[in-house]
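Re: weekly structure request thread

Next one in the queue (229 aa):
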Amino acid sequence: MSPNATVLITAPPPTLLQGLKRRRPDLAVAPLEDGLPPVAEGPVWCFVDWLLPDRSGLEMVRTLREARATRDSHITMVLESAEPEDKRRALRAGADDYLVGPLSAERLLERLATYEAKPAAPTAPRRRLTHGELVLDLTAHQVRYQGRLLTLRPNELRLLAHFVEHPDQVFSRTALIERIGKDDEVSDERTVDVWVGRLRRALVAQGAPDPLRTVRSAGYVLDSLPGAN
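Done, posted below.
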């Protein structure tokens, strides 16, 4: 992880801050409060509690997604229980992932290490994929439609890359969980519907067509375009 990485935590106890500073002095760690920080030069990681003193964690996640300083940050929601509906609500609000609290320095650093070690596009490194006018630049972690840059979260980009690489193949929810490396974290397969829904909305919001087709009781598929090899 970059030495300029910033970690923001809602209502962190002093022991958590001290533990992070001792184990990872390279991280800039700060409480996540109403006054959002200025835009950081390096990556920003936010850990948001499910319940906050003056609002819900879901509301905080939405605020982070709208704020310039944190809209591109990686947001992990710290849940109070493993209820499947809470997990889905966290993802729908804009969180990238979740874990069940309480949060500790060890668990936080383990979560960061998971993403440090995981390449953004392990099945198609350093090349481009195309589907009609959709162009995925996996080196730059970008997606463009008709030359316009689309805003996709990492999970959405990985899902789209997987579908584009494997057209005309139906993938079950279990297979898609395995594809993005979360099979040890997700117990409710319906969470995949949230990920796919977010991908679809992100594409349509920018004028791109929805390339995915739902196959009832089976999963999802991306159909080849007419004339494609």
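Confidence is low (pLDDT under 50) at residues 119-126. The two ends are 39 Å apart (CA to CA).
Next request, please.
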